[in-house]
Write a structure and sequence with these properties.
By secondary structure, the protein is of the alpha/beta class. It has two domains: about 250 residues, 3-Layer(aba) Sandwich (Rossmann fold); about 130 residues. The strands form two sheets. The protein has a six-stranded mixed β-sheet, with helices on both faces. A two-stranded antiparallel ribbon has the order 7-8. Helix 1 packs antiparallel against helix 2 and helix 10 packs across helix 11. The protein is elongated, with a radius of gyration of 31 Å. The two termini are about 30 Å apart. It binds guanosine-5'-diphosphate (GDP) and magnesium ion.
């Protein structure tokens, strides 16, 4: 446990450092980017920068967010009251008692080093179709853990919402509430019921949506029971007795999650949020600078074609070509104002050479042979016959054209890399996400998300 706690704290610290690095980088990128930062770009990336700031603020507060989700009147607000141990939020049989998001502090009396924020939400069925999905996504994005509350039979709307939430890749507990009204509902039964839907929607497997141990049954606010009290003198009095909420199963599940992986969850979610924000920033920047980038790539393609074609020395033209490619990558990253060091540019070039192996091998390979041929033509004839010069110019222009084409390929791949790659640096969000996922223990709630998150 102690070892795990320090591992979790380390993850939290690394996430913190990563976000700080990103924020300091993008703030200076806004203030004095190498290319004049256009107002339009600043406006478009504003929300993404804000998202980075928010993620860091939540890490600073060490506040883990648990949101309720479910149809109107399934007992979301009652569940929150039951966890808090007092009637803090209004509940009721009338539709739509909860109108907006309400954030409540919860102290589950457990040493986790975390603050817990419970979020009460309006019912999923109060908003329809598209906007429901939008609301669900936006709440999920702000949450570290989701309590999906159902009561009674699971409906199609609930099943669809569950699938949508699964797509947001947030850990989820299915809370079956009002168990006092449905005493024979148990995990197995709920699971079988979900299975029915799953057969109908044969897209994702049920395991992808929920595992049996992620279902808890509770009674957040059991119905009052009418009792007859007969006094010794024979007078009969009717009164209502309010049974205590039964939420131990949920409390235990939450306490275990908080202790075992609370900090990791917090770190992971902050990093996912940071990664998405950074990829967004990169994508928008690249989009806005598209035409300038095209010009730069074309310019370098021309340079390289000429340099390679006129250079008569074996290998020097290859080297010249590589230098031109490196310079291209540097110019592109400068244009975008996205982070890239010379070392990374070199790495990138190696990656590009590997990933576009077929095409570039063609370039390098034919460059080599043509280079030999080109120099050979000069050596054998010493430039004195017109035939040799024609041969030289022939191979040279073919070689130049191929080299120029290679530059276009490199330019394109560089754009993709700059878009994704800014999060793959040493303290980059994607790098740390991968690291945390490789450290999770089986049987944790993060473990289930591993496969899905790894694919991104
Ligand atoms: N029988 C029973 N009723 C409940 C339970 N939890 C909540 N309710 C009732 O369900 C209704 C809706 O509860 P509320 O918490 O406002 O639902 P919300 O709309 O999901 O926030 C209220 O009348 C509650 O008293 C429960 O565990 N058992
Ligand atoms: Mg409510």
């Amino acid at each position: 446990m102690g070892q795990q706690t320090s591992l979790q704290s380390a993850q939290l610290n690394q996430a913190h450092a990563s976000l700080q690095q990103a924020i300091s980088w993008y703030s200076s990128f806004r203030r004095h980017g190498n290319s004049p930062p256009s107002d339009r770009l600043q406006a478009t990336v504003k929300t993404d920068l804000q998202s980075l700031q928010n993620a860091l603020a939540r890490l600073d507060r060490k506040a883990i967010r648990i949101s309720t989700f479910g149809l109107v009147s399934c007992g979301k607000s009652s569940l929150i009251n039951a966890l808090l141990g007092e009637e803090v939020v209004a509940t009721g049989a009338v539709h739509g008692v909860t109108q907006s998001l309400t954030i409540l502090r919860w102290n589950p009396s457990v040493e986790s080093g975390l603050d817990v924020e419970l979020i009460d939400t309006p019912g999923l069925d109060e908003v329809t179709g598209e906007s429901r999905a939008v609301m669900a996504r936006s709440i999920a994005q702000k949450s570290d853990l989701i309590l999906f509350v159902v009561a009674g039979d699971i409906t199609r709307t609930e099943y669809q919402a569950l699938c949508e939430l699964r797509d947001t890749q947030k850990p989820l507990i299915l809370v079956f509430n009002k168990s006092d009204l449905y005493p024979d509902q148990d995990r197995q039964k709920i699971y079988r019921q979900l299975q029915k839907f799953n057969v109908a929607h044969s897209g994702s497997s049920l395991e992808d949506i929920i595992a049996p141990h992620e279902i808890v049954t509770v009674a957040a606010k059991p119905q009052p029971i009418q009792v007859r009290i007969e006094s010794a003198d024979g007078t009969v009095e009717n009164s209502w007795e309010y049974p205590e909420p039964e939420i131990e199963s949920l409390k235990n599940a939450l306490v275990q999650i908080l202790q075992q992986e609370g900090k990791s969850l917090l770190a992971l979610n902050a990093l996912v949020q940071a990664r998405d924000a950074q990829v967004n920033i990169a994508r928008k920047t690249i989009e806005l600078r598209q035409s300038e980038a095209q010009e730069i790539i074309a310019k370098y393609a021309r340079y390289k074609a000429i340099a390679v074609a006129v250079n008569p020395i074996i290998f020097a033209d290859l080297l010249g070509g590589l230098i031109a490619d490196l310079a291209l990558i540097r110019s592109l990253s400068k244009l975008y104002g996205l982070p890239i060091t010379t070392f990374e540019a070199g790495n990138l070039l190696r990656r590009i050479l590997a990933s576009t192996g077929g095409l570039l091998l063609g370039e390098v390979g034919s460059s080599f042979f043509l280079s030999v041929g080109k120099s050979g033509a000069i050596l054998s004839s010493g430039f004195d016959s017109t035939g040799a010069i024609t041969a030289y110019l022939g191979t040279a222009s073919v070689q130049g054209a191929i080299a120029g084409y290679g530059t276009f390929v490199i330019g394109r791949v560089a754009q993709v890399y700059l878009e994704q790659g800014c999060t793959w640096g040493e303290m980059g969000a994607s790098t740390l996400i991968k690291q945390i996922l490789s450290q999770v223990e089986p049987k944790t709630i993060i473990y289930r998300l591993k496969q899905e998150l790894m694919q991104l």
